[in-house]
Design goal:
The structure holds two protein chains of two kinds. Chain A is α/β, with parallel strands linked by helices. In chain A, 28% of the residues lie in helices and 25% in strands. Chain A has a seven-stranded antiparallel β-sheet, with no helix packed on it. A six-stranded mixed β-sheet of chain A has the order 2-3-1-4-5-6, with helices on both faces. In chain A, strands 16-20-18-17-21-22 form a six-stranded antiparallel barrel. Chain B has helices at residues 8-26, 38-50, 70-82, 93-97, 102-126, 191-201, 233-236, 265-274, 292-299, and strands at 30-33, 60-63, 87-90, 130-132, 149-152, 180-183, 212-219, 222-225, 240-245, 258-259. The chains are: A alpha/beta, B alpha/beta.
């Protein structure tokens, strides 16, 4: 970056002198190949932000003469720059704003040099306009953060930097402006750089650059500086022209979120979308979510001819080898690189609406061409954008930012925002006003230990407690034990689908009943057909399902009744939560330890469906089954004849049933 | 490794196609407003690209003020026919029959009645819930902050203080019955981008953009072409043949020509680079009052 470029566009022609004697066709052919850099400018009018932008536009001669003469007229009337031309007036578009003297929204500006085209998202720096900055940052490749050399790193600088890192901008330029007011002193610059560096290391910005400028004088903006010989880097414009951005996109994880199904006639079925990330290639095997059906890419079609591969941000249409039912919102991916398919996730949220959040209201979420309903499970914290301090709150107001846990009505296909801007971002829409009330960046799916059974917000728990009065029970545990001759206990049978759990459970129930025990059997089909009928088989819903089972079992055990619970319950963390609910001393884990071969032979239907891609989330197949850490008993299906006996002996030995 | 990067034009094209498809997917009854100008021509080609090899699933609508250049109307009809577009032409017939026109009523009344009112009438008549427009953010100051999906209330009015946040490329397309969205797929294109694209894609445009000898009269500093017999005789009499072209197209009595020799796109671009007057100055309506475009937009004009 230290290399000086002699050929920057600082000449008099509006499109650069380098055109020189080139013939117009050659010029246009070159211009056509320029790439596009979208940048955000953050800072207040006081920092000279509008002046800097005005300079970039002016010096690249985008400002046409008539706009200039109107500007001179306006400057005399409402300008704030005294005798000089007020560049800010060029940017403050709307009449109301011109009267107030502040920019209140994101304005987009365009200019080009011989090397690049630029789109500037100009956003104001006032606290109450966090939402505008977030808006501008969402599409930017790079952010210029302006700082006044006479003031140094201030609260606002930190706020802007935090927002820039939150929105995942990879390149930041700290423009230390008004160097003329500090006599172009290197010491001032170095101190600011040091202070800013120590701050930005806490945040996640991979590329940080520092450029001293004097925007009002045009120093080091377009032309390299002559007044700061100690500075050896590029001028602002040189930097913007040369910063490498084409590798910023995610080319690794192919995501094709179907936007539009193209069916011009019965013979043609195409799926149109922008490639969100990764490279989509003709002939490759793909998988469609949520159906998990697979096929191959037959063609990648564009108006300008078919392609062998397409990459972000291209908009293309693909056809598949097989006829598969696909609709808008489905996602086409490679089978060996799947996104998260979940209903529960955590994200950073920015509240954008004047109306504060009502955490109990369901909203619409629009994500990767998918729209579904979403509810808030928990607000983890709010971040103060000025201090970066976290604090707990129960709702968000306009411009507040924080971390939330959310659940959608149907599974969405996402990646963490840090890995993938396109599949990690979403907007929330109010179902009544239809306003965009919030926007979010997905952090990731929930950890197993944070799954719904634990997502109860503390305040609600406290509030509920004060309203729940437990009646005083007149029957003691001892009386119950005497009556039933048993201890209320949960016999939890875990194991793969087809391991013989249910067979064992039913036999055990019969034998215990015959022996005089009071026993209740709970299994997946009985609970899922009623109490849990809205839940699916995703890890998160499995967790919620088992939480409900655990509470039923606990209630029954409290009444002195023995329960036999037959559930695959593949996740050790979830099993631990179950133990916590029921109580360790009356929970007995029985592991039906069968091999995968045995299970597939014993109950082939589900495994076959899985192989055909008809179902997903099958423990032992695409969902991990963890072996229980400390089971009470481990049984093998091959010992069918003696398994119930083993359990009954255990119960008798431990005086669970019968006690006498 | 091959570098996967797009030129700025291809990136803008991909963005516009994405926007156009999104509207087709989310709205029940969209329409593409067609002004016959160069920006419209680009937008129409982008729509054709978006649904290729299928047909575009929405119609074109032209608001005919009845004072357009003859060549524009001819071009419009030919283009729609040759490219299989469903073309709706709507005019404020009541006002036209009552004799409203720029020569008799002035530019302000004419624009309001024959353009703004006619547009609202047309949108209401067909109950369109989304309308594409070919506006660009670099055209005029008040456009710089306009959203790509610009929300309009049931009176088609735009409230600059009450616009929806628009982030990434996720567009909020929810409206209540009667409300609508104006969509600007080429928001991020500049005038040079448009010319480049027309050149590269060989997009047909109205011949009026190219220099030719045409009969013109100087009216208050604007070179007005005599396009038909409705121009008052005392003005039309002063017409002289001049080598001119038009930088923007509209109602012929309100659209000033510029003297030019540029009869190819390359020459036009070359001329643009040396001429330093922004394109809207040849539109008479912008100078009515300060902030006039913003005012017109609030009232429902594009």
């Amino acid at each position: 970056m230290t290399e000086k470029n002699q050929n920057t566009s600082t000449d008099n022609s509006p499109f650069g002198e380098a055109r020189g004697t080139l013939d117009i066709n050659t010029y246009l052919d070159q211009d056509e190949k320029k790439d596009l850099l979208r940048l955000l400018t953050a800072g207040s009018v006081d920092d000279g932000k509008s002046t800097l932008i005005g300079r970039l536009l002016f010096d690249s001669k985008k400002i046409y003469e008539d706009q200039l003469s109107a500007l001179e007229r306006d400057s005399k009337r409402v300008g704030h720059a005294g005798e000089e031309i007020d560049y800010a007036l060029l940017l403050d578009g709307l009449k109301a704003e011109r009267e107030q003297g502040i920019t209140i929204d994101v304005a987009y500006r365009y200019f080009s040099t011989n090397k690049r085209k630029f789109i500037i998202a100009d956003t104001p720096g006032h606290t109450q306009y966090t939402r505008n900055m977030v808006t501008g940052a969402s599409t930017a490749n790079l952010a210029i953060i302006l700082i006044d050399a006479t003031k140094g790193v201030i609260t606002q600088t930190r706020r802007h930097t935090f927002l820039v890192s939150l929105l995942g901008i990879k390149h930041v330029v700290l423009a230390v402006n008004k160097m003329d007011l500090v006599n172009y002193d290197q010491k001032v610059f170095d101190e600011i750089v040091a202070e800013y560096k120590s701050f930005i290391t806490q945040l996640d910005v991979p590329d940080v650059n520092f450029i001293p400028i004097a925007a009002l004088k045009g120093e080091n903006v377009v032309e390299p500086t002559t007044l700061m010989p100690w500075y050896h880097g590029p001028s602002m414009l040189e930097f913007l022209e040369s910063v490498h951005i084409s590798s910023d996109r995610n080319f690794g994880d192919m995501r094709f979120p179907v936007q539009y199904v193209l069916r011009p006639d019965l013979d043609f079925r195409g799926f149109s979308a922008r490639v969100a990330s990764g490279i989509i290639r003709k002939g490759e095997e793909i998988m469609v979510l949520p159906s998990r059906k697979t096929s191959k890419i037959k063609e990648i079609i564009t108006y300008d001819g078919n392609l062998d591969e397409a990459f972000p941000p291209q908009s293309v249409t693909i056809t598949l080898e097989d006829e598969i039912d696909i609709s808008r919102g489905d996602m086409i991916v490679y089978p060996d690189n799947l996104p998260r398919v979940e209903r529960h996730f955590e994200s950073m949220l920015v509240w954008m609406d004047e109306k504060p959040m009502d955490p109990n209201v369901q909203l619409f979420i629009k994500h990767a061409n998918n729209t579904t309903r979403v509810k808030f499970d928990q607000i983890k914290y709010k971040v103060d954008v000025n201090t970066l301090q976290k604090s707990s709150i129960d709702h968000f107001e306009l411009n507040e930012i924080g971390r939330v846990v959310m659940t959608t009505n149907k599974a969405i296909f996402f990646d963490p925002y840090k890995k993938n801007r396109s599949t990690g971002s979403f907007i929330l829409i109010d179902p009544i006003s239809h306003n965009t009330v919030a926007v979010g960046m997905i952090i990731d799916k929930l950890n197993a230990e944070d799954l719904p059974s634990k997502i109860v917000d503390e305040k609600t728990l406290e509030a509920n407690k004060s309203r729940i009065h437990r009646g005083e029970c007149l029957v003691s545990d001892a009386q119950r034990e005497k009556r039933y001759n048993q201890k209320g206990t949960t016999l939890w049978i875990t194991g793969l689908h087809g391991s013989g759990k249910n067979e064992l459970a039913f036999t055990l129930e019969k034998e215990m009943f015959d022996a005089g025990a009071t026993v209740v059997l709970l299994d997946g089909s009985s609970i899922r057909s009623g109490l849990s009928n809205e839940l699916d088989f995703s890890p998160a819903d499995r967790a919620e399902h088992l939480r409900r089972v655990a509470h039923i079992s606990k209630l029954l055990n409290d009444q002195g009744i023995i329960t036999i619970c037959s559930f695959i319950s593949p996740d050790e963390n979830i099993r631990k939560q179950v133990v916590q609910i029921i109580g360790e001393d009356r929970f007995k884990m029985i592991h039906m330890d069968a091999t995968m071969e045995f299970c597939k032979k014993n109950k082939p239907e589900l495994y076959e469906k899985f192989e055909e891609g008809l179902i997903a989330n099958l423990p032992g197949a695409d969902l991990q089954f963890t072996t229980p850490e400390n089971p009470t008993l481990v049984l093998k299906p091959e010992n069918r004849a003696t398994n119930t006996k083993t359990i009954l002996e255990y119960l008798a030995d431990h005086k669970i049933f019968p006690i006498i | 490794m091959t570098e996967y990067s797009l030129s700025h034009l291809k990136e803008l094209e991909a963005e516009a196609i994405h926007i156009i498809r999104e509207v087709a997917a989310e709205f029940e009854n969209p329409v593409m407003l067609y002004s016959i100008g160069k920006d419209s021509s680009v937008m129409v080609r982008l729509a054709e690209k978006a649904f290729y090899p299928g047909k575009v699933p929405f119609p074109l609508m032209h608001i005919d003020s009845k004072w357009k250049f003859k060549e524009m109307v001819e071009f419009r009809d030919n283009y729609a026919r040759e490219n299989g577009w469903n073309l709706i032409v709507h005019s404020n017939m009541a006002a036209f029959e009552a004799g409203v026109g720029p020569f008799t009523h002035g530019s302000k009344v004419h624009t309001d009645v024959m353009k703004t009112q006619a547009l609202l009438e047309g949108l209401n008549k067909y109950k369109f819930d989304a309308a594409f427009g070919g506006a660009r953010r670099d055209e005029e100051k008040s456009r710089a902050k306009e959203r790509i999906f610009s929300f309009r209330d049931k009176f088609h009015q735009w409230d600059p203080k009450n616009q929806r946040p628009e982030l990434w490329d996720i567009y909020n397309a929810r409206v209540h019955k009667g409300e609508s969205i104006r969509v600007f797929p080429i928001s991020n294109w500049t005038e040079l981008d448009i010319w480049q694209y027309i050149r590269l894609e060989k997009i047909p445009i109205v011949p009026l953009y190219f220099a030719k000898e045409r009969p013109c009269v100087n009216v208050d500093g604007n070179l007005i072409m005599v396009d038909d017999e409705r121009m008052p005789k005392d003005i039309a009499e002063k017409a002289e043949m001049k080598m001119v072209r038009f930088r923007t197209l509209g109602c012929y009595p309100l659209t000033g020509a510029v003297e030019s020799e540029a009869d190819t796109i390359e020459k036009i671009v070359e001329e643009m680079m040396t001429v330093t007057v922004s394109e809207r100055t040849t539109r008479v309506i912008d100078f009515d009052q300060d902030g006039s475009m913003e005012q017109k937009k609030r009232e429902g004009y594009f």
